[in-house]
Amino acid sequence: MRLRVLLVDDGMSDRIAVSRALAKDPDIQWEVAQVASAEEALAHLTGNAVDAMLLDYHLPGMNGVALLQKLAELGLPTVPAVVVLTGSGNERVAVDAMKSGAQDYLVKDAFSPERLRRSLRAAVDSVRMTRELEERRLRAERAEAVARDALAVRDELFALATHDLKGPLQIMTLNAQVLRRQIPAAAMTPALETRLGHIVRAAHRMGELIDHFLEVTRGQERPLKRERMDLLAMVRGKVRELEATASRHVFVLEAPEGRDFAGDWDAHALERVLENLLGNAVKYSAAGSTVTVRLAVEEQDPQQAVLLYVVDQGIGIPAADLPFVFERFHRGSNVSQDVSGSGVGLASARRMVELHGGTLAVESQEARGSTFIMRLPRGLALGALPTTPPQAAPPPRGGPSHSAP
Length: 405
Fold this sequence. Notes:
By secondary structure, this protein is of the alpha/beta class. It has three domains: 2-111, Rossmann fold (3-Layer(aba) Sandwich); 150-217; 229-376, 2-Layer Sandwich (Heat Shock Protein 90). The protein contains nine helices and twelve strands. Helix 2 (38-47) runs parallel beside helix 3 (64-74) and helix 5 (113-182) packs antiparallel against helix 6 (190-217). The protein is elongated. The N and C termini lie far apart (84 Å).
């Protein structure tokens, strides 16, 4: 390794002794430039880059500390490491030198050549490390500024996109409502009334989802709004909607009679979870296959948490993909490019369930279908959130026991 050092000392014998000590360094080859005054040193530093400076405190005219202060005013792109030499052991001189930017202080005639070399190497390493840390800090600040700008652009784009998405939804809602009023009563069949109602509710629901999406992207996730609700009633309503819209599948709802499936939950959040789980079951299974939704109560739990199973006969999830099912933007390797999806639905669903103090787990085999298991405590669980999947009676594997009412 080659390092450049400027030796500033008005004593010829001292310059010779220091030069010899550095010439015998077994690890570093020092290129020594010598000057006898502070003014010569400033002139040299303005035109030459050096890695280190050995500076005699007692100089004719301007002393070593004054030189260091002048050096700070020059604003050099790279400031050298500095070790101050003096013929006395005055502590005040040492303190002034350190405050002015020196890394070390040695008393002449009291240090060995090895001590001189070690002090100079340590000073160079210290300055180099400080410089690297400062460069990293500046890079981090620049990266943070770029990230802030990117987030601002992203938020603006999301706001514009969500605004543009809401326009068509409002048109759909208004047209469905107009049709409801304009169609003669004699022509308004129950099936037509139901389908128009589905359009209006779906448009309103999509508007809510767009608002939620914008809030999440901005880090403004709303707290849960817990109210007493019947999960069975919600599931039954969702199954009926799917029977009307996804007519190519068979839907089965299983729930033991007389059991209570009510709890203090956020209805909007659980509706999003159900829509995602049931939508995936339809999306990833063939026409004519059965989607089974089963409700149960975790008997061994003192609070009797509610369990919900969504079972499909679809393509299943490869074993290699199972650990990543609930990660954002991850999609199974066996999913066709023709199947739409962003890979964020399950991550959002699990987040909603965990906010309730519950868990969302999956069991799946490729080409044999998947079973998603949601466990919901009936109230606000105190303490640690559950992290293990529920251990309950196995979900149905055969044909349906009875269809949804």
